[in-house]
Specification:
By secondary structure, this protein is α/β, with parallel strands linked by helices. The chain has 9 helices and 10 strands.
């Protein structure tokens, strides 16, 4: 898979929005991930604001790899579900307007009991969002980390064909004790976005932790090869949740991905 498409999550830079855009471009990214809650208020942005956003992206020759829309609860939770769905649809429409094809969120827990109310709600809501995504041209992607590849496959099989996508987050999978490679084997054809992260399992402490890209257990050459078998041509978006020097570490991450 020659010439990986490299992006940077703006929130990871821990800088004001305009400065973060400039930093991402300076580090060599061709696109950025925008958080629809932290970076901008995508639900209330005006037409003037959209034009200004497009101008800023154009000034730095950047595209948008994805729109992040982290909600407090998943789509399996009845609390304020109508408001959550309406907000997600608004962000999907915004994403298409800014040139992004995916909106990323943790969709909720995949219940073991397919007769449970939570499972039925999750499938119902994601079916609705899948159909809406086809209408507006931006699909919801479930961020990995809390579910095994097999459980994600089970959920996808319950939804319309070409329904939601998958945001592969190798670091989060490792932290949770799952295999990124096995996840690709299960849902590779549905992966629409990659968060280029890394992690390790600390057996002494009985938990995992996020680490700088290239310093963890994620075997990226093997992951890239496995993704190539599914003809993945989307972005690899660098992300760090905890870093003492985000620009430095993300810059190292860009160089790491370029060598693959």
């Amino acid at each position: 898979m020659p010439g990986l498409k490299i992006a940077i999550q703006l929130a990871s830079l821990k800088q004001p929005f305009k400065k973060a855009l400039a930093t991402a471009a300076q580090l060599g990214a061709s696109a950025v991930e925008i958080d629809a809650r932290v970076d901008i208020n995508a639900q209330t942005i005006s037409n003037t604001g959209m034009r200004e956003l497009r101008r800023l992206l154009g000034d730095h020759e950047l595209r948008v790899s994805a729109i992040g829309f982290p909600t407090r609860h998943g789509y399996d939770d009845h609390e304020e579900i109508e408001r959550r769905v309406a907000g997600t649809k608004a962000i999907m429409k915004f994403a298409h307007g800014i040139g992004a094809e995916v909106v990323i969120n943790h969709v909720g827990m995949v219940a073991c009991d397919e007769k449970s109310a939570n499972w039925k709600l999750l499938v119902e809501v994601l079916t609705d969002l899948s159909l809406y995504g086809h209408q507006v041209g931006a699909r919801l992607c479930a961020r990995t980390g809390t579910e095994s590849g097999a459980d994600l496959r089970r959920l996808l099989d319950a939804l319309p064909q070409q329904g939601i996508g998958i945001d592969l987050d190798p670091g989060s999978l490792i932290v949770a004790g799952f295999s990124p490679l096995e996840t690709i084997q299960e849902v590779g054809a549905n992966i629409l976005h990659i968060h280029a992260t890394d992690g390790v399992q600390d057996r002494a402490r009985g938990r995992g932790m996020e680490v700088q890209l290239g310093r963890g257990s994620a075997d990226y050459p093997s992951l890239v090869a496995a993704l190539a078998q599914h003809r993945y041509d989307g972005y690899f978006t660098l992300m760090r949740e905890r870093s003492e020097n985000p620009p430095l570490e993300l810059g190292i991450g860009v160089k790491f991905l370029r060598k693959l």
